[in-house]
């Protein structure tokens, strides 16, 4: 019986502690709630309306320009950010800090003429633009972007696709250099010209037993790759030897 009495006492004490804790929590929340008010929701409100709402609630409104930001759906000058969310409990006299809307972000298509499509893609990602269609055209001058759509300087919205016209250098046609030794120079020159191959230098030398105008040496050698950008040199027979290197006609 004595042991049971101790257990009853302990259980009763436990109930008192729980009841006291719950009562303290309840009255503390009631006290705090009683002295606090919900912060007004100011997002989207004009600064004049936001000040009036804060004043009516006994709060102080401060504008922090460092919190200003671009917003697509909030007019310029309206509240776009507040440090205390609407509905959260604050004490009267609390300072509510807000930032203002700068309006939609103004984007201009950058001038990227002469640059590569890869560089354009990087520039677009940095400016919140997208790469649109890309068309290529052959160009024997400087390769790179030659046109944009929309044109550079155009004001556009974020994620607007920009199409590009890109010029690329057409590679010169490659051939295998023929063996032209013992062939007439006039005929060889005509064949080379038909394939955009140019004989850059001609050297004339006397060679006993051969008539004039026959090729006796060549560079590049037969079998070597050659294109319109390569210099071709030929040594041609002539009765009077000369060491002068002449430009091919």
What is the CATH fold-level name of the largest domain? Answer: Trypsin Inhibitor V, Chain A
CATH class of the largest domain, named Alpha Beta
User: What is the level-2 CATH architecture name of the largest domain?
Assistant: 2-Layer Sandwich
Structural class: alpha+beta
Largest sheet: 4 strands, mixed
Overall residue-averaged pLDDT value: 83
Provide a descriptive summary of the structure in words.
The chain contains four helices and 16 strands. With 249 residues, it is α+β, with helices and mostly antiparallel strands. It folds into three domains: 35-104, Trypsin Inhibitor V, Chain A, CATH 3.30.10.20; 107-168, Trypsin Inhibitor V, Chain A (2-Layer Sandwich), CATH 3.30.10; 174-247, Trypsin Inhibitor V, Chain A (2-Layer Sandwich). It is rod-shaped and about 135 Å long. The protein starts with a helix and ends with a strand.
At a glance:
Helices cover 26% and strands 30% of the residues.
Feature tags:
four-stranded mixed β-sheet; Trypsin Inhibitor V, Chain A; single chain; alpha+beta; 249 residues
Blueprint of the fold:
Blueprint: H1 2-35, E1 36-38, H2 47-56, E2 60-63, E3 79-82, E4 89-91, E5 95-100, E6 107-108, H3 117-126, E7 130-138, E8 144-149, E9 155-156, E10 161-168, E11 174-176, H4 185-194, E12 199-205, E13 215-219, E14 225-227, E15 232-237, E16 245-247
């Amino acid at each position: 019986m004595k042991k049971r009495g101790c257990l009853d006492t302990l259980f009763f004490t436990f109930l008192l502690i729980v009841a006291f804790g719950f009562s303290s929590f309840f009255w503390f929340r009631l006290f705090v709630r009683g002295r606090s008010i919900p912060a007004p929701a100011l997002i989207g409100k004009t600064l004049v309306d936001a000040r009036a709402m804060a004043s009516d609630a006994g709060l102080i409104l401060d504008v922090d320009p460092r919190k200003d930001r671009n917003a697509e759906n909030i007019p310029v000058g309206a509240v776009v950010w507040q440090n205390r969310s609407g509905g959260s409990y604050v004490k009267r006299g609390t300072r509510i800090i807000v930032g203002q809307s700068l309006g939609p972000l103004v984007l201009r298509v950058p001038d990227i003429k002469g640059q590569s499509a890869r560089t354009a893609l990087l520039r677009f990602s940095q400016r919140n633009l997208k790469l649109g269609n890309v068309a290529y055209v052959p160009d024997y001058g400087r390769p790179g972007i030659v046109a944009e759509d929309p044109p550079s300087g155009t004001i556009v919205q974020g994620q607007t696709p920009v199409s590009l016209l890109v010029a690329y250098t057409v590679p010169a046609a490659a051939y295998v250099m023929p063996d032209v030794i013992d062939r007439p120079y006039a005929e060889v020159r005509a064949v080379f010209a038909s394939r955009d191959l140019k004989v850059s230098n001609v050297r004339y030398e006397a060679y006993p037993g051969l008539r004039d105008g026959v090729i006796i040496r060549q560079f590049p050698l037969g079998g070597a790759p050659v294109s319109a950008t390569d210099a071709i040199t030929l040594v041609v027979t002539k009765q009077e030897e000369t060491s002068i290197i002449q430009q091919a006609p």
